[in-house]
Design brief:
Helices cover about 25% and strands about 25% of the residues of chain A. With about 375 residues, chain A is an alpha/beta fold. In chain A, the strands form two sheets. In chain A, strands 1, 10, 11, 12, 13, 14, 15, 16 and 17 form a nine-stranded mixed sheet that branches. An eight-stranded parallel sheet of chain A has the order 8-7-6-5-4-3-2-9. The two termini of chain A are about 15 Å apart. The two termini of chain B are about 20 Å apart. The chains are: A alpha/beta (about 375), B alpha/beta (about 375).
């Protein structure tokens, strides 16, 4: 609904396809498509001969085309995760046919919308509450559709998800009695709050996924077969396939990457922020034309300037970021640099388009059609 | 595109899709009225700050009691383009830009509407002068004055005087005046049992205004005509009117600041409880993508404020104290008080105008995401 038609004649003149990166307007969100392909190839290779497959998360991509690229590259369940119903709608309209909504959908309006979407794609949603199950069944019955249900299991994030096996079994039993919903399996999401070496990373992955698998065993012992065990994320990408029973991994960060996961050597950072140095108040200080509105603050100390490892983050404002160094910084006002971000989700959701680059040439302007789909 | 489930005008606020950004129109209009009344007795003009909300329709509301061509402050060239397209024809771009393509676009836009720019160094001036030297008009410029330990702004003294003299010598830029710059962008909040307030972390000191007026007087002594002396949101309203300040930039009517005229915060984010996995825990469907990184706080009927115990891109997780009186069952809705108004507006495409708990209008946040 933005009235952009008459604005574009001003704003797009310096971003024609074929433009070199250093000539692009700033600030801009760049995506190096060769690196994305490489990251996707790593997943395709890792999951080529495994029972467990990747279900890429769309919440940090917000762009169906990028999700389809991984499906085409291989190693996946041929579907993705979405965080919200509105995000799932964008993904289905972009050609994705299999979606797991990884949050609880509790309001009648949203459940109706989810039910309508289920007529276009295989839609599954996570629950952690009996009342929510009843409401989904009721609305799905009214709209003559069937929704797949996964029970979310809390394993180490202390947010949504059932806490006890007994309650999970109660939910499964309820699902079994209600129409227009189908129990499909269980889901858990994990977090690695601090990297303390490879052993700690893999142990954290094993411990949290094992907790999820305990629920699987208990539910199956009650006579309810489980089709899907969706457990793990990018930091467990090499652990999950080695844990029998896990059918899919919800990997998100690996696709575009950030410095926060720099310890994962199979993936490189594909998304970078092009910015111009607009001020150099002293030889050791530079100010860039990008700030926290377009590069939301999170772990600022991890923010890096490409090819300038000794220049460190100092401070950030709405439209500006300040970097300093103990020695003179070898760039001047007007120079453009690439910033390497640390955290993706709110970052990608701040932008309306990717500048897709290959060999530092703009080859495509890709709309981020899912930006703002947090409903 | 963001796609909230649309609801007809007149809908109850509880029926809105969540998370939804709302502005209480009664509170907002009262703030505007108070502000207009206060400044009508002063000898300066208000400049409406539009980079707190990026919404031309809200700017129109803020300006309804001001002169038709009063100045609008925006941050970027792209924001200026949006506001120009929405009919505003007197704009001040607060951020510096030195990219030649942007300067060319500035020259184009200046053919359609009056655009003030800001300058703080000679390099910047030279680039602008080179790029637009073929134009047959002068772009009005304000010199940013550094009034504290900021990274921006030209320090007072010889450097400032030389910069102004160089501007005057150019054929492309018209020296219009001085604008202050001091860092006052960080928000803070307190959460107390009975009341919480949002205020600037450090109100600009008296010395900022003194520096500004001192520079003005020195320019006068040198016969340099300084038409405009602008103070940029310093939250020391009492200091301004007794000086030579001609314009004051403010967006305080939207942000709310109880320390001045008892302005109230009209902006809130409506959110829904989606999970209660433990008896003392509940989770909202708003996360950092819809609140901004500084998230926000919620309050109960007794005004007890709660800050999130943790958060993620899509969640705010709260631990409920025993004395928190509100029902936190799944499906219940809460208003989140945002901590950073510009950031939360930048994350949404629409803001819902609410009056007496009914949806009265839907405003498109047209200039959000216009960073260039």
């Amino acid at each position: 609904m933005n009235n952009d038609s008459s604005i574009s004649k001003y704003t797009k003149t310096s971003s024609d396809l074929g433009t070199k990166v250093e000539k692009l307007p700033t600030p801009s969100l760049l995506l190096d498509i060769e690196i994305v392909r490489s990251n996707y190839a790593s997943i395709a290779k890792k999951y080529k001969n495994t029972a467990c497959k990747m279900r890429q998360h769309g919440k940090n991509l917000k762009t169906p085309k990028l999700a389809l690229m991984q499906i085409e590259a291989g190693g996946t369940v041929n579907g993705i995760c979405s965080a919200k119903v509105s995000e799932a709608e964008v993904m289905v309209s972009g050609g994705i046919k299999d979606i797991l909504i990884t949050n609880q959908i509790v309001t009648p309006d949203k459940i109706k919308r989810m039910c309508k979407l289920s007529k276009l794609a295989d839609i599954k949603v996570c629950v952690d509450n009996l009342e929510n199950v009843r409401l989904i069944s009721e609305i799905a019955s009214t709209l003559d559709t069937t929704i797949g249900i996964l029970i979310e299991i809390e394993t180490n994030m202390k947010r949504a998800g059932v806490r006890t096996i007994e309650y999970a079994i109660n939910i499964v039993k309820l699902i079994d009695t209600l129409p227009n919903i189908q129990f499909r399996g269980i889901m858990s999401h994990q977090a690695l709050y601090e990297y303390q070496g490879e052993k700690h990373r893999k142990d954290t992955a094993k411990n949290t996924i094992s907790k999820c698998l305990e629920f699987k065993k208990a539910i199956e012992s009650e006579g309810f077969p489980i089709e899907i065990v969706s457990s793990g994320e990018t930091f467990t990408y090499d652990v999950s396939p080695k844990m029998p029973g896990v059918t899919e991994v919800e990997g998100g960060t690996y696709a575009l990457m950030g410095t926060v996961y720099s310890f994962l050597k199979d993936f490189e950072v594909a998304n970078k922020l092009l910015t111009t140095i607009i001020n150099k108040p002293d030889p050791q200080t530079i100010v860039c034309d990008i700030g926290y509105l377009s590069m939301p603050r999170a772990g600022d100390e991890l923010l890096q300037i490409e090819n300038l490892p000794n220049v460190k983050f100092q401070d950030m404002y709405k439209y500006h970021t300040v970097f300093t160094s103990s020695s003179e910084i070898p760039i001047n006002i007007g120079a453009k640099v690439k910033l390497i971000p640390n955290y993706q989700d709110p970052l990608i959701d701040s932008w309306d388009e990717f500048f897709i680059i290959e060999n530092d040439i703009l080859i495509e302007i890709l709309p981020i059609t899912g930006r703002g789909t947090f409903h | 595109m963001e796609s909230p489930i649309s609801k007809p005008i007149g809908s109850d606020v509880q029926d809105l899709d969540t998370p939804s950004l709302t502005v209480d129109l009664d509170v907002f209009e009262e703030n505007i009225s108070q502000l207009t009344k206060f400044f009508s007795t002063q000898k300066l003009d208000l400049i409406t700050r539009s980079d707190t909300h990026y919404t031309p329709s809200l700017t129109s509301l803020q300006q309804k009691d001001q002169s038709p061509n009063s100045l609008i402050a925006v941050s970027t060239l792209e924001q200026a383009e949006v506001f120009a397209n929405s009919g505003f024809n007197n704009l001040l771009i607060m951020n510096f830009f030195i990219d030649t393509n942007k300067i060319k676009k500035l020259a184009q836009l200046s053919l359609l509407t009056k655009i003030f720019i800001t300058i703080d160094n000679e390099e910047h001036l030279e680039v602008i002068n080179q790029v637009i030297q073929t134009s047959n008009f002068k772009i009005p410029a304000l010199v940013r004055l550094r009034t504290n330990n900021s990274f921006f702004g030209c320090p007072p003294g010889k450097q400032l005087t030389n910069l102004i003299k160089k501007i005057i010598q150019t054929k492309t830029i018209h020296f219009s005046g001085i604008i202050d710059y001091s860092d006052k962008t960080q928000y803070s909040h307190t959460t107390e049992k009975t009341e919480y307030t949002f205020s600037k972390a450090e109100p600009a000191p008296t010395s900022n205004i003194n520096t500004l007026t001192s520079v003005f007087e020195k320019l006068n002594e040198q016969k340099i005509n300084c038409e405009m002396l602008i103070v940029d949101d310093n939250y020391r309203y009492d200091l301004i009117s007794d000086n030579n300040v001609t314009h004051y930039i403010t967006g305080i009517d939207l942000i709310g600041d109880k320390s001045f005229l008892n302005l109230q915060n009209p902006v809130q984010l409506l959110s829904t409880v989606t999970s209660c996995p433990e008896t003392n825990q509940f989770i909202l469907d708003a996360g950092l993508k819809s609140t901004g990184i500084q998230s926000g706080v919620i309050t109960d009927t007794t005004n007890t404020a709660l800050i999130p115990s943790s958060y993620s891109a899509e969640h705010l997780i709260f631990r409920k104290p025993d004395d928190f009186s509100n029902n936190t069952a799944i499906g219940k809705k809460f208003y989140i008080q945002p901590q950073n108004i510009p950031e939360i507006f930048n994350r949404h495409n629409y803001v819902y105008g609410i009056r007496k708990n009914k949806l009265e209008s839907i405003y498109t946040i047209t200039a959000r995401g216009k960073y260039k």
